[in-house]
Amino acid sequence: MAASSRAQVLDLYRAMLRESKPFSAYNYTSYAIRRIRDAFRENKSVKDPVQIQALMNKAKRDLGIIRRQVHIGQMYSTDKLIIENQEKPRT
């Protein structure tokens, strides 16, 4: 993989992780991050430039989906789960 291609892949990976964090629901956030990491790990050994470009295009489409879902989730927010409200115990 060329250096510029590698940099583009890493930028896309970071952008997808960053965009997944503001999901309003904890389960969506953890699922999205897990799927992103798994997908990139699964395809890290791909060497064919055509296949790399196809995977990059798919990831860019998925990034758009993540962004839309985050905005929709913010419009229709729900109550936080117990695991999301972890405050430090008072002593």
Automatic annotation (TrEMBL):
Pfam families: Complex1_LYR. Residues 7-64 form the Complex 1 LYR protein domain. It comes from Neophocaena asiaeorientalis asiaeorientalis. Belongs to the complex I LYR family. GO terms for biological process: iron-sulfur cluster assembly. CDD domains: Complex1_LYR_LYRM4. This is LYR motif-containing protein 4. The gene is LYRM4. InterPro entries: Complex1_LYR_dom, Complex1_LYR_LYRM4, ISC_assembly_LYR. GO terms for cellular component: L-cysteine desulfurase complex; mitochondrion.
